[in-house]
Amino acid sequence: xxxxxxxxxxxxxxxxxxxxxxxxxxxxxxxxxxxxxxxxxxxxxxxxxxxxxxxxxxxxxxxxxxxxxxxxxxxxxxxxxxxxxxxxxxxxxxxx
Length: 96
Description:
Blueprint: E1 6-11, H1 20-36, E2 41-46, H2 49-57, E3 66-69, E4 72-75, H3 81-91
Parallel strand pairs: 1-2
Antiparallel strand pairs: 3-4
């Protein structure tokens, strides 16, 4: 047991399954597996590229959209455009 260790990761919902039920089941399994290993804390970003792109163009529609960047919670629309694009580019890839 390593008390105090926190992990942050991003999830793109479409990668978890074909439908909402599959996605919920798979995310639950990931989290249960993590905590079954005596893990302490987890931060999950659930990212949707279209939503983030819309938030860049229409920040007033998303005043409370909060994401985690380097362990810190930040409102997406408070980031400058360069950092917003960096978050999107680091999270969404056309291919692996």
